[in-house]
């Protein structure tokens, strides 16, 4: 039994030891992420302007007034509305910056088959994002590509979030992908 296991492991090592760099996955969505980044930046400007307007123009009127329940009588309402607008705008811009950093643009298995390079999109879709080179043993695919409907989650040891592989991307070498990056490993 142990000899059969060693033979199977040796066969996998030979199959994944590539003589040159091999692109396993490719999915360039520059236009989509630029449009999403433009939308997020526009939303950030809108909510910042609304917060500025709320802070400067919605001051409570001095003196007695009608008993209108919607009439602000003190600054708590104004400060709360301003803070809510700024928070919402900041969250939208942060999502526009972080989501492209998780979306994988390209996965390359480096020569020898022991390391892999993961390239992502830039924040707000501007430019190329970071490129991470990690040992293959630190990469774990949490679900097989045939089991998920839209994106394949990819966990890299030492990274707080999952990288996401869009299923509409191109798998250049599907069998090699399944044996290397697409394999589940305990991290």
Helicity, as a percent range: 40-55%
Shape: elongated
> From the helix content, strand content and strand pairing, which structural class follows?
alpha+beta
Strand order of the largest sheet: 4-3-2-1-8
Q: What string, H for helix and E for strand, traces the elements in order?
A: HEHHEEEEEEEH
Mean pLDDT across the residues is 86
> What gap, in angstroms, lies between the N and C termini?
26 Å
Largest sheet: 5 strands, antiparallel
Q: Please compute the radius of gyration using only Cα atoms.
A: 25 Å
How large is the count of helical segments? 4
* pLDDT < 50 stretches: none
Number of strands: 8
In what range is the share of β-strand residues? 15-25%
Please tell me about this protein's structure.
It is a single chain. With 187 residues, the chain is α+β, with helices and mostly antiparallel strands. The protein is 41% helix and 22% strand. The strands form 2 sheets. The protein has a 5-stranded antiparallel β-sheet. The longest helix is centred in the first third of the chain and has 28 residues.
Entry keywords:
187 residues; alpha+beta; 41% helix
SSE diagram, text form:
Blueprint: H1 2-16, E1 22-26, H2 30-57, H3 75-102, E2 104-109, E3 115-121, E4 128-135, E5 139-141, E6 151-156, E7 163-166, E8 170-171, H4 174-179
Antiparallel strand pairs: 1-2, 1-8, 2-3, 3-4, 5-6, 6-7
Helix pairs in contact: 2-3
């Amino acid at each position: 039994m142990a000899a059969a296991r060693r033979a199977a492991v040796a066969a996998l090592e030979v199959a994944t030891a590539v003589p040159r760099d091999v692109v396993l996955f490719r999915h360039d969505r520059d236009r989509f992420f630029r449009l999403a980044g433009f939308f997020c930046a526009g939303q950030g400007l809108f909510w910042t302007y609304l917060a500025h307007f709320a802070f400067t123009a919605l001051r409570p009127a001095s003196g007695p007034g009608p008993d209108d329940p919607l009439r602000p009588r003190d600054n708590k309402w104004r400060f709360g509305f301003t803070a809510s607008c700024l928070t919402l705008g900041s969250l939208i811009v942060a999502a526009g910056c972080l989501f492209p950093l998780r979306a994988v643009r390209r996965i390359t298995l480096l020569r020898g088959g022991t390391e892999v390079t993961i390239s992502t999109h830039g924040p707000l879709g501007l430019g190329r994002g970071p490129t991470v080179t990690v040992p293959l043993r630190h990469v774990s695919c949490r679900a097989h590509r045939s089991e998920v409907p839209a994106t394949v989650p990819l966990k890299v040891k030492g990274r707080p979030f999952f990288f996401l592989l869009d299923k509409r991307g191109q798998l250049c070498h599907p069998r090699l992908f399944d044996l290397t990056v697409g394999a589940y490993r305990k991290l």
